[in-house]
Amino acid sequence: MRVCIVGAGFSGAVIARMLAEKDISSLVVDERNHLAGNCHTERDSETGVMVHKYGPHIFHTGIERVWKFINQHGVMMPYVNRVKANVANKIYSLPVNLHTINQFFGEAFSPAEARAFVESKARMDIDEPQTFEEQALRFVGNDLYEAFFKGYTRKQWGCEPSELPASILKRLPLRFNYDDNYFNHPYQGMPRDGYTAIVASILDHPKIEIRLGGRHEDLTEDFAHTFYSGPLDRYFNYDLGRLGYRTLDFVPERAEGDYQGTAVINYPDESVPFTRISEHKHFAPWEADSFDKTIVFREYSRLCGPDDVPYYPIRMVAETQLLEQYEARAAQEKNVTFVGRLGTYQYLDMDVTIDRAMDVAEAYLAAYSPVEA
């Protein structure tokens, strides 16, 4: 008897591959008609640009085994994510660094001078920040908070920063040098042929059957075990209510040549309805100059409805209480493991998703008995 894996994204693909290499067969089912879940990439038919269908995904990690694994299934090209921000029609560098500080305040500070200046602006009376707003005010002060964080956060999450937990700003991106690399991880890159090709390679094994465009709920076959990466509340037919998510709407625009000169520009101003514009050919700098046309996407954040693609778990008080109830039910399920962003109701980067999927596969293999299967 084989196992069932619900979801053909990174979680499901990694688990299927690791089990297949130990001679365990699986059915991977996904109700979408493509592989790779929200990491799906495809060529835009009009421009030829490799498009991240569900928004930009930049691969970065400090986990060596994850980096080795991903490189076994695709060519990772060098890529550094350098984000800009349009604030009051002026372009700044993100994350907030020495260049940003000097430009924003019209100064020419040294690193030590900038640090002292920002500390003079910071709310030192906030000893232990409890909210997103307190966290930002404690470390950057009101001016930088108002310019780069407040409006963007309101648009992204649909609520006041004072209502969000401080954990969302776990490590405030603030640097007192000119480093504008958005990430700190030692391994960073972009797949030369897109993420979908990598997931296809991971799933390319005779022990793995892929069934796209089909719902897990409609399966009639019995399985030794199910690895479920769909929405946790959906597994239980939303019996206790729906967990809250934010979703994204992407509005495309095609143009000649180069639209904005970089991959991502954030728009923190609340007067601008979208959160950012991404120009996808810049995610592949090794081929960007070969395209005569370009495609950009304006990104709008809103509350996720029943028929929308869920992106970010809200995880505020009401959701965490409901989550605990669903987690208690999930713990009682036999031969079912809940994995991935949706299955665990957590915002997970791609590398963490892969790492946890590897842990799940290893745990199953350690407990697996060929006689029982």
Automatic annotation (TrEMBL):
Gene3D superfamilies in the record: NAD(P)-binding Rossmann-like Domain
Gene this protein is translated from: glf
Alphabetical UniProt keywords: FAD, Flavoprotein, Isomerase
Name of protein: UDP-galactopyranose mutase
Record NCBIfam families: UDP-GALP_mutase
Domain of life: Bacteria
Family: Belongs to the UDP-galactopyranose/dTDP-fucopyranose mutase family.
Enzyme Commission numbers on file: 5.4.99.9
Organism of origin: Novosphingobium beihaiensis
Cofactor(s) this protein cannot do without: FAD
